[in-house]
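job 3f2a | input accepted
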Amino acid sequence: MAPSPPTWPTAGPLIIGIGGGSGSGKTTIAQSIVEAIGHDDVTLIQHDAYYRDQRHLPVEERAKVNYDHPDSLETDLLVVHLGELLNGNAIDRPVYDFTVHNRSLDTIAVEPKPAVIVEGILVLSEPTLRELMDLKVYVDTDADLRIARRWERDIKERGRSFDSVRDQYLTTVRPMHLQFVEPSKRYADIVIPEGYNLGAVGTVISAIRDVLRGR
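job 3f2a | predicted structure (215 res):
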């Protein structure tokens, strides 16, 4: 059964969730929406900034954590922070350092804006997050392309080896995608095919613009 069309609120910030598999193009799409709408009107919050603090574990043990399972994320804190933004209050967003598999001691101040994009592989699989969303988007990309992008990102940007990325994909990324990420597509209001679909992304941007102009 297809989800019902979103009902846009008449007041308060819009919350837009963008989910999909690792390497699907979620971040690129989210950033393109921010650029199109304008940084003064929309802010981007990435779910993976909320990976749990693990300084109590040695680095070797941190590397073994299943980062594609919902339990690896402090989603409750993200829900609290979104509630603060909805109420017009600023938040201090966590910062996660992927090179050491741990949350940084630094935070980033985020001010309330008319729209908030929440992006991450598991954002549509979490009921507490979905309840806050006015629009839910799923980016549906072929698995071969997703793993190729993940290899490039993790090796170039996160200092990982080819073998470690491959092993993680086979042991956690793919199983968790099938268990949690792929099924969350059923909750989406809009499914964007093939990673970056210009028409679908344009539809999302137009919808957000129309609502913000009508405020």
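job 3f2a | The chain has one domain: 14-213.
job 3f2a | closed
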